[in-house]
Design goal:
By secondary structure, this protein is of the alpha+beta class. Helix content is 19%, strand content 34%. A hairpin with a 5-residue loop joins strand 10 and strand 11 (232-236).
Length: 257
């Protein structure tokens, strides 16, 4: 481990109470999701940087200083199927948080990206380390420059510093986001994901022609949003085919309507 790297296990993190959460703040961790793995509900971990940040299917996530790298532990009581669409609810919380700052043309890209037009602003990853708990990992580009670490990202990302002034500091942004997570979780816990479905389906940016990687097979059609179970609707040859999130390795957008 590099000398300046801290983890929750090796060095006590600074703890503060934030909008009903206990927030653990660290300098550097391998992954905030892993650092939050053993924490109880309503605890969260924020790090200045991650050395092994990851996205869906363990794809690497550049987590340089200046971005918001946050993992929040949410309770998922009862039947697990009630919470299958939680990643989409978390995406809604992120989208609404940045829109409230004045960012326009915010949209979602199924299942776990938040974009401004066609550039990625934020991503998320949900893990389940303990029964009845979900760890929602969220990364938002704020003042960081991920393209300097990975040239392939040049022209594909965007950050809050490019769109709003003044740029919110990470403490304020963390508080806003944690409050938004509380809100969508409470709504979903009370009434199910269906209550959030109109707001989520309004954020896809209209029908888009996409190609799905189904783990060997591929399917092309028009993305039509999701249902109350979080399944993806793909229109193909005048019929709609539904895909469960676990079936889809990757969605690639081809064109907008």
């Amino acid at each position: 481990m590099p000398p300046n790297e801290t983890t929750l296990e090796s060095t006590p993190a600074a703890c503060t109470a934030v909008t009903g959460w206990t927030l653990h703040e660290c300098a550097t961790v391998a992954s905030t999701n892993d650092a939050a793995a053993a924490l109880p509900a309503w605890h969260a971990v924020r790090a200045d940087s991650q050395t092994a940040g990851r996205g869906r299917w363990r794809r690497p996530w550049i987590s340089d200083r200046g971005g918001l790298w946050l993992s929040a532990v949410l309770p998922t009581p009862g039947d697990a199927t009630r919470w299958r669409a939680l990643p989409l609810a978390v995406g809604l919380a992120v989208a609404e948080t940045v829109a409230a700052l004045g960012v326009t043309e915010v949209r979602l890209r199924w299942p776990n990206d938040v974009l401004v037009r066609d550039r990625k602003l934020a991503g998320l990853l949900l893990d389940c380390f303990q029964p009845g708990l979900a760890v929602a990992g969220i990364g938002i580009n704020v003042t960081n420059t991920p393209e300097f670490a990975d040239d392939s990202l040049r022209g594909t990302t965007v950050r809050l510093a490019d769109m709003v002034a003044p740029v919110p500091d990470l403490t304020a942004l963390t508080g806003r986001l944690l409050a938004a997570l509380r809100h969508v979780h409470a709504a979903m816990d009370k009434d199910g994901f269906a209550v959030l479905l109109p707001a989520v389906n309004a954020l896809w940016g209209g029908p888009r022609r996409v190609e799905l990687d189904l783990g060997g097979a591929r399917a092309t059609g028009w993305f039509q949003g999701v249902d109350a179970a979080g399944r993806l609707a793909l229109e193909r040859e005048d019929q709609v085919v539904w895909f469960d999130p676990v079936q889809v390795v990757q969605l690639r957008e081809i064109e907008a309507a």
